[in-house]
Specification:
The protein has 121 residues and is mainly α. It has a domain of 65 residues. It has four helices and no strands. It is elongated. InterPro entries: DUF413. This is Macrodomain Ori protein. Belongs to the MaoP family.
């Protein structure tokens, strides 16, 4: 049998309430991770050698970065994506430009106009 392990997989560092209650995985995905995750992690880290062709296919797909139709690889890639670094999207940035080019005043209380120290001569 592929991906056999004596203990269930839990990642309390990233999911303190458990995989099922995280809201990131479906029930089937959480079941697969809990049941096979320990063996998947050992294969991924290289601490365990593949025992059959299913595990070898999983390992080759993980190394290539393509899940294909392998459900084990798909759920493992989803797990890695969820625990990976989060992307931050900013709507606007102020990047070291002058006040005139950025449209923002750095001194004063803000406001639309006429309240600054600039003279209009």
């Amino acid at each position: 049998m592929s991906f056999e392990s004596d203990k269930r997989f839990n990642d309390f560092k990233h999911f303190p309430r458990g995989l099922r209650r995280s809201g990131e995985f479906t029930v089937a995905e959480a079941d697969a991770l809990e049941k096979y995750g320990t063996a998947m992690l050992a294969l991924y880290q290289g601490t365990q050698e593949p025992r059959d062709e299913v595990e070898a296919a999983f390992l080759s797909q993980v190394k290539s970065g393509e899940a294909g139709g392998n459900p084990h690889a798909k759920v493992w890639f989803k797990y890695l994506k969820v625990i990976g670094p989060k992307r931050v999207h900013r709507l606007c940035t102020v990047a070291g430009g002058s006040e005139e080019s950025s449209g923002f005043e750095s001194s004063g209380g803000g406001g639309g106009g006429g309240g600054g120290d600039e003279s209009l001569d």
